[in-house]
Amino acid sequence: YGSCNYFNSLYKGKVREDAPNANYMSLLWLIPKLLNGVWEFIRSFIIGFWKGEEYKENWTMMSVRVLGIVLPGASDHFPHDYVNATRLGGLSRPVTTTTPEDKLALIA
């Protein structure tokens, strides 16, 4: 389906050719997902101090973070994280060299 814009829990973005962790229900990924859930719960308390008052999470989102510890990955796709990824994140795209002929081919 094309490239994947991936943001980690610190809102650092990468452009990847494939989605990370394609086999989501693997036991090998359980421990990192649990640790990420714990980190996101801690981050929900400190993000207001770290990034600014407008990023402070309410008790509903903190409850969702607890759900992310009980069910690893459950809190990863809430709208609040997508908004923060857009506001705080940045993508590093690979450098591509384009010749003038390639640019003309796109126009034609």
> Into which percent range does the helicity of residues fall?
40-55%
How many independent structural domains? 1
Number of helices: 4
Radius of gyration: 18 Å
Q: Would you identify the regions where 5 or more consecutive residues have pLDDT less than 50? A: none
Shape: flat
Q: What average pLDDT do the residues reach?
A: 81
Euclidean distance between termini CA atoms: 25 Å
Instruction: Give the H and E element order.
Output: EEHHHEH
Please state how the strands of the largest beta sheet are arranged side by side: 1-2-3
The major β-sheet equals: 3 strands, mixed
Structural class: mainly alpha
Tell me the fraction of residues in β-strands, as a range: 5-15%
- DSSP strand count: 3
Structure description:
With 108 residues, the chain is mainly alpha-helical. The protein has one domain. 48% of the residues lie in helices and 11% in strands. The protein contains 4 helices and 3 strands; from the N terminus they run ββαααβα. The chain has a 3-stranded mixed β-sheet. Helix 1 runs antiparallel to helix 2. The longest helix is centred in the middle third of the chain and has 22 residues. The mean pLDDT is 81. InterPro entries: OBL-like. One of its GO terms (molecular function) is triacylglycerol lipase activity.
Topology:
Layout: E1 4-7, E2 12-16, H1 30-51, H2 59-70, H3 79-88, E3 90-92, H4 100-107
Summary, kept brief:
InterPro entries: OBL-like. With 108 residues, the protein is mainly α. It is built from four helices and three strands; from the N terminus they run ββαααβα.
